[in-house]
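Entry for the shared binder. Reason: the reviewer on the internal report wants the predicted structure included alongside the sequence.
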Amino acid sequence: QKSESTILNVLQIKESGLQLNSYGLNFDEIVKESDEYNWSALGEQLERVKTKYPDSEDIIISPEASIRYETIIAIMDRCRDAGFPLISISG
C-alpha cells in the first residue's frame, strides 16, 4: 500500500488536451474543445484524486514543448485551487 503523501500525480499538457495520471485511478484524456481546455473536467478529475487520496498534495506538470507559458501558469493555478500546492514541472 502506497502512502497517500507519496502518490504520484502527473498532468500532461498536450496540444490535443490534458491527461491526468494518478496511482490506482484511470482518467480519459480531456480533449480540447474549440481550442479551449476543459477546465471543469480537469477540476472533476483532480477532485477524484483528492477524494481517494485526501493527503496528496504533489502534482507534476509535464507540458509539451509547444505549450505556452501562460497556459502552464493557468493550469498550475487550477491545480493549486484543487488542493495540490506542491507543483513540479517536468520536461
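Summary line for the report: The chain has a mean pLDDT of 93.
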